[in-house]
Amino acid sequence: MAQAFVSARVVTPEGIRAAAVLEAEGVIHRLCERGEIPSGYAVRDFGELPILPGLVDSHVHINEPGRTEWEGFRTATRAAAAGGYTTLVDMPLNCLPETTTVPALEAKRQAARGKCFVDWAAWGGVAGDNADDVVPLAQAGVKGFKCFLIYPGCEGFQMVTREQLERAAPHVAQTGLPLLVHAELPGPIEAAASALGGADWRRYETYLRSRPDEAELSAIRLLLGLCRKYGFRLHIVHLATALALNDLRDARQEGLPVTVETCPHYLHFAAEEIPDGSTLHKCAPPIRSRDNREGLWDGLRDGDIDLVVTDHSPCPPELKRGESGRFDQAWGGIASLSVALPLMWTGMSARGFSLSDLARLMAEKPSALAGLDRRKGKIASGYDADLVVFDPEAEIEVSADVLHTRHRISPYVGKRLRGKVIASYVRGKTVYAEGSFAEEPSGVEV
Ligand SMILES: [Zn+2]
């Protein structure tokens, strides 16, 4: 049955307005005034509660097939639905096989079938010497490519050297798809390691010093040069250093096709506040200083950072090495699909950002990065009816049972946050409402 989703605050690309969002067969066909809803529509009236476009997370490690004991399609997409995300784009690593060939992509599709509570898509990998797999992967439907300039922290997915990247770059450019890069170079990290000597690896400061800003800066400069040379669309994933913002701004002013993301953990935490031994905070690049964090917020405000995505990267609790608290031995990754929306709104509302900014940074722009911008990421005619009802005035305290991930560990447990996801709809279907999930997964690959 056709539905009308009604609110005094519908967050559209043109602004926030009172409207009824008319949905039929999973698609928004138009917006109208509340009094103009045609007969035959089931009305869902949310009063003053804002309706946002379903969030799109273009940086998620679902880890299935192969490491389903770390996460998996069922658990990740449930956490997503509870968090207001209606589309995930899966990273090509930490799963086995890694998504670096067409058969591996097919294995992933097989693994996802019948398990997804929200829609999903796949990134492919540029890894080692697989340049010849780039065009076939694009033809098979990946949305773009991810590569690492440094060891990715996990056996299997290979980093690329400059030479390997230069072999793959023309193929990527030919596809017109973006190249997403983990931008840290090994040189500055190796230099930092030898300077650390016998430092105490339980201290957060040791970990921070082991991955200096210079590793990100030098990688970004290398990548901007290759972008200029080969003309591929460059996307910098999880920018952690605000020191790179000038270079990135200059590159864009020059006309290079560059986009940039950062993540909630870089915008929420500060190195000064991370307790020694708290390996739940380990991720790479690392969470940096308080001043740096505010620099990243400035980057968001000025438009130098395009989007915010989670880099949801869970692991079994024992891999966090909680008993030793050693940052050098712990898995790097922070999972936040189910809490990223209130987490971001807490920081955004305190700094004068609006719900429109949130929709742009967490739905519209990630959707565009993945080439889904004709059907995902906006409340507009012709778009999928992916909607989130959000209470921006509510307060929540994060507890393990609201994480919904396979492993309920998080540095956010105990945090008081502003904003609460009330319900999520994917193509008009309720996937999450007030703590309950749809009985059957109905997410599809898009
Ligand atoms: Zn990642």
Task: Explain the overall architecture.
The chain is built from twelve helices and 18 strands. It is α/β, with parallel strands linked by helices and 446 residues long. The strands form four sheets. It has a six-stranded parallel sheet with strand order 9-10-11-12-13-14. 54% of the residues are buried. The model has no long low-confidence stretch (mean pLDDT 96). The structure holds zinc ion. Zinc ion binds at residues 59, 61, 91, 311, 313.
Order of helices and strands: EEEEEEHEHEEHEHEHHHEHEHHEHHEEEE
Total count of helical runs of at least 4 residues: 12
How many E-type strands?
18
Mean pLDDT: 96
Reported for the largest beta sheet, the result is:
6 strands, parallel
| Rg estimate, integer Å | 21 Å
Q: How is this fold's topology laid out?
A:
Blueprint: E1 3-12, E2 15-24, E3 27-32, E4 42-45, E5 51-53, E6 55-60, H1 73-83, E7 85-90, H2 102-112, E8 119-122, E9 124-125, H3 134-140, E10 145-148, H4 162-175, E11 178-182, H5 186-196, H6 204-210, H7 213-230, E12 233-236, H8 245-254, E13 258-262, H9 264-268, H10 290-302, E14 307-308, H11 340-350, H12 355-369, E15 387-397, E16 416-426, E17 429-433, E18 436-437
Parallel strand pairs: 1-4, 6-7, 7-8, 9-10, 10-11, 11-12, 12-13, 13-14
Antiparallel strand pairs: 1-2, 2-3, 5-15, 15-16, 16-17, 17-18
The chain binds zinc ion.
Zinc ion binds at residues 59, 61, 91, 311, 313.
